[in-house]
Design brief:
- This protein is α+β, with helices and mostly antiparallel strands.
- Helix content is about 45%, strand content about 20%.
- The protein contains twelve helices and 13 strands.
- An eight-stranded antiparallel sheet has the order 1-3-4-11-6-9-12-13. Strands 2-5-10-7-8 form a five-stranded antiparallel sheet.
- Strand 3 and strand 4 form a beta hairpin.
- The longest helix is centred in the middle third of the chain and has 20 residues, at about 180-195.
- The protein is globular.
- Residues about 165-175 have low confidence and may be disordered.
Length: about 325
């Protein structure tokens, strides 16, 4: 196993800052629930292996992509609540997975906690061989959800917690020592390959869910192409040739929210991101809001402050 190790804990009060704290990932987060955001990332990283725990105070829509030639495995904490991956609900007996360089989407609830393992493919292959485990690589490359053994899942959670602990808990091994670090890494990877050895790939989404996912994707693409327009549900329905009820069901099944909730939060996050990424004071808040389809500035300011717990001018003051 690699020996060079870095570990850190990072606290963020901004959803975009939190999205960029995870090393070597390409991520974009949209806050969905109202209030001041708090995020905590605990990360343990060696060459080719990354283990982390992420906590979010508020519901978030995440667009994620890990580095090439690696696999990500996501383990939701049992008390965290319902999470959706690419529109599919994740059950308690499942872990999430995606190969590197493949974008995927997560929608997480309030007060959510997730454990993650990212491992280089060659390291995973070597460890599987060493432990006598068999991995169906072709199935894994296309999988999103894996059914796993509950006892093995609990063991994996425990080993990750021990690794991320400031002192660790290993009998007869000095806490914080190189020996303890190596032992903890070995335990996490061994638990992971044991899970994969007995896992079953969840079948692909049924045709009805696939259709609903397609409708949501088309609606979001249309919104992006018409960013400056104040889009309404009837406008989306007319473009997609679906009824209002169908559109509502599609968004609720895939994203767990209504079309208007999604559009409003997406636009507000877009404004905030643009204000924080622009040179300070060079863009008027009203102009940025209008560019994202907000025609009533007073209502925009009220909605913005309600979602983020601060005014648009506060984001502008924090800009680069």
């Amino acid at each position: 196993m690699p020996s060079q190790i870095s570990s850190r804990t990072v606290i963020a009060h901004d959803v975009d800052e939190h999205a960029h704290n995870l090393s070597n990932w390409e991520q974009s987060y949209d806050q969905l629930a109202a209030g001041r955001f708090d995020g905590v990332l605990e990360e343990w990283k060696t060459e080719g292996l990354q283990i982390f725990r992420e906590r979010n105070s508020h519901a978030v829509r995440q667009s994620c992509c890990v580095w090439p030639d690696a696999y990500w495995f996501g383990i939701e904490q049992p008390v965290a609540g319902s999470i959706r991956m690419n529109g599919r609900q994740v059950r308690a007996d499942m872990i999430m997975t995606r190969p590197g360089n493949r974008e995927f989407e997560l929608v997480t609830p309030d007060r959510h906690e997730i454990l993650g393992i990212v491992i280089q493919r060659n390291i995973l292959l070597e460890e599987a061989d060493r432990h006598g485990c068999t991995i169906a690589w072709s199935a894994l490359a296309n999988a999103e959800l894996l059914h796993v053994d509950s006892d093995g899942l609990q063991a994996c959670r425990r080993h990750i917690a021990a690794l991320l602990s400031p002192v660790g808990q290993c009998d007869d091994i000095t806490p914080g020592s190189e020996q303890q670090r190596s032992y903890s890494q070995e335990q996490v990877v061994a638990a992971l390959v044991a899970l994969l050895d007995s896992s079953e790939v969840e079948s692909h989404a049924c045709n009805s869910l696939s259709r609903r996912h397609h409708i949501v994707t088309e609606a979001r693409q249309y919104a992006k192409q018409n960013q400056a327009e104040s889009l309404t549900v009837p406008m989306l329905c007319a473009h997609l040739h679906v009824s209002r009820r169908t559109l509502q069901y599609c968004f609720e099944d895939v994203l767990g929210m209504s079309p208007m909730h999604y559009l409003r939060s997406w636009r507000l996050n877009g404004v905030r991101r643009q204000l924080m990424q622009s040179d300070r004071g060079l863009q008027r808040i009203g102009d940025v809001a209008a560019a994202w389809g907000f025609t009533n500035f007073s209502q925009f300011s009220s909605d913005y402050k309600k979602l983020f717990g601060s005014s648009p001018s506060a984001a502008q003051r924090l800009s680069v």
